[in-house]
Amino acid sequence: MLLISPDGRDGSATIHQDADVYRLRLKAGETVTHELKSGRGAWLQVADGAVTFNGTELTTGDGASTEQAGTLTVTATQPVEALLFDLK
Questions:
Q1: Does residue 34 belong to any structural domain of this protein?
Q2: Which domain holds residue 45?
C-alpha cells in the first residue's frame, strides 16, 4: 500500500521529495515484489516480524538497502509490518 509519494497518487500523502513509501503488512509465507528503476535506491525497514529481502534475513528493527535496479522480493517468514522506501 502506497503511503507517501511526491504526487499524492492512490490517495497517498504528499511529500516534496522524489520518494515513494510503501507499507507492507504480510502474513507468514506471503511475498511481494517491487520494481526498482535504474538510478534509484530502496530501503526496507522492518517494524515488526521477519522477512527475507532478496535473500537476506531481517527481523524487527533491521533495515537493508540496495541501489541495484530490478525486481526486489520481500517474503514474510513471520507476520510482518515494514516500510519500503523507493528513493532518488
A1: yes
A2: 19-87
